């Protein structure tokens, strides 16, 4: 069983000819809402990857915005542990311009109410998957509790921020893109030096269309990206994390799990949206067989 603990947001997306300047009103089009939030995206990716049971700890408000988030998790087969708070459900307001630029405002709301004591019973849990979109105190407490219970801790260091040493000491695998790796280690433009700062932690660095590479006790692993016609890379990183941990928990080796994650995240780039674009297991199998 994989337990994901983290954020869930409802994304409000409007397309506009350009991002409005302060004080400006722009007539946009194509309004839609999408279930999002890094935690929920990764839980859906883990569940769709198959082969493991997926549970998720999340916080939602007592409002209608919570409903599509609950629905998306349920439909993917995620067992949700929902903390119901007085704060509104987390939302993100996203304006996408015709030049494909975006401007995003997030109101974390209920996500900010997650506490150390909300961690559910870890019986049967082999892997805990965390991100940095919820407050750092509970993330640290959950990592430490999981570590003490013999659960493997995987941290996706997104969004980018510096991390306390105590958190890194409780992490088995760190997944970061290049910017996030620089924020965590304070080392820019030198992957080997950055990874060396992390000591015994296994590290995966995702490199967008260039694929991903990992540094483990056994040395370096390189995983090229699968070639696809990418239309929207939103959620590629989240799909990678969820699919990787699902494969690891199902018994794959580190390198096999990276390959599965690369296939799943490449497929996610071929469709719009975050959770909606995450492929099912059968599609990933087809990709891997190519
Ligand atoms: P993030 O969005 O978190 O910065 P990346 O952009 O590094 O994450 O993407 C995560 C993974 O998704 C990559 O390691 C790669 O395997 C896959 N990926 C991203 N962009 C593409 C692409 N254009 N084509 C194929 N795979 C991609």
Automatic annotation (TrEMBL):
It comes from the Bacteria. It is an enzyme of class 2 (transferase). Its main location: cytoplasm. The active site is at 238 (proton acceptor). Requires a divalent cation, most likely magnesium in vivo, as an electrophilic catalyst to aid phosphoryl group transfer. It is the chelate of the metal and the nucleotide that is the actual substrate. Its EC number is 2.7.1.15. InterPro entries: Carboh/pur_kinase_PfkB_CS, PfkB_dom, Ribo/fructo_kinase, Ribokinase, Ribokinase-like. K(+) binds at residues 232, 234, 268, 271, 273, 277. Pathway: Carbohydrate metabolism; D-ribose degradation; D-ribose 5-phosphate from beta-D-ribopyranose: step 2/2. The keyword ATP-binding applies. It catalyses: D-ribose + ATP = D-ribose 5-phosphate + ADP + H(+). Its cofactor is Mg(2+). Gene3D superfamilies: 3.40.1190.20. Residues 2-280 form the Carbohydrate kinase PfkB domain. Keywords: ATP-binding, Carbohydrate metabolism, Cytoplasm, Kinase, Magnesium, Metal-binding, Nucleotide-binding, Potassium, Transferase. The keyword Metal-binding applies. It is found in: Cytoplasm. ATP binds at residues 177, 206-211, 237-238. Substrate binds at residues 9-11, 37-41, 133, 238. One of its GO terms (molecular function) is ribokinase activity. Catalyzes the phosphorylation of ribose at O-5 in a reaction requiring ATP and magnesium. The resulting D-ribose-5-phosphate can then be used either for sythesis of nucleotides, histidine, and tryptophan, or as a component of the pentose phosphate pathway. Homodimer. Belongs to the carbohydrate kinase pfkB family. Belongs to the carbohydrate kinase PfkB family. Ribokinase subfamily. This is Ribokinase.
């Amino acid at each position: 069983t994989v337990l994901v603990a983290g954020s869930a947001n409802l994304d409000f997306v409007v397309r506009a000819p350009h991002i409005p300047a302060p004080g400006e009103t722009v007539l946009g089009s194509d309004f839609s809402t999408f279930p999002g939030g890094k935690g929920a995206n990764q839980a859906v990716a883990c569940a769709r990857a198959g082969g493991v049971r997926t549970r998720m700890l999340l916080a939602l408000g007592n409002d209608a915005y919570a409903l599509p988030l609950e629905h998306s998790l349920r439909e993917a087969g995620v067992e949700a542990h929902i903390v119901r708070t007085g704060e509104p459900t987390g939302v993100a307001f996203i304006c996408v311009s015709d030049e494909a630029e975006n401007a995003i405002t997030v109101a974390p709301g209920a996500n900010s109410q997650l506490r150390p004591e909300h961690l559910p019973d870890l019986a049967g849990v082999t892997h805990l998957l965390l991100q940095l979109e919820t407050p750092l105190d509970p993330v640290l407490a959950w990592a430490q509790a999981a570590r003490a219970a013999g659960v493997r801790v995987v941290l996706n260091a997104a969004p980018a921020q510096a991390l306390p040493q105590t958190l890194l000491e409780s992490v088995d695998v760190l997944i970061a893109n290049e910017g996030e790796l620089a924020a965590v280690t304070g080392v820019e433009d030198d992957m080997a030096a950055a990874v060396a700062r992390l000591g015994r932690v296994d590290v995966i660095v995702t490199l967008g269309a260039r694929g991903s590479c990992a540094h483990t006790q056994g040395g370096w692993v390189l995983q090229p990206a699968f070639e696809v016609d990418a239309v929207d890379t939103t959620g590629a990183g989240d799909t990678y994390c969820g699919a990787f941990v699902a494969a690891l928990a199902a018994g794959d080796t580190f390198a096999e799990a990276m390959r599965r994650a690369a296939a799943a995240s490449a497929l996610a780039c071929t469709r719009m949206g975050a959770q909606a674009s995450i492929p099912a297991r059968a599609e990933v199998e087809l990709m891997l067989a190519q």
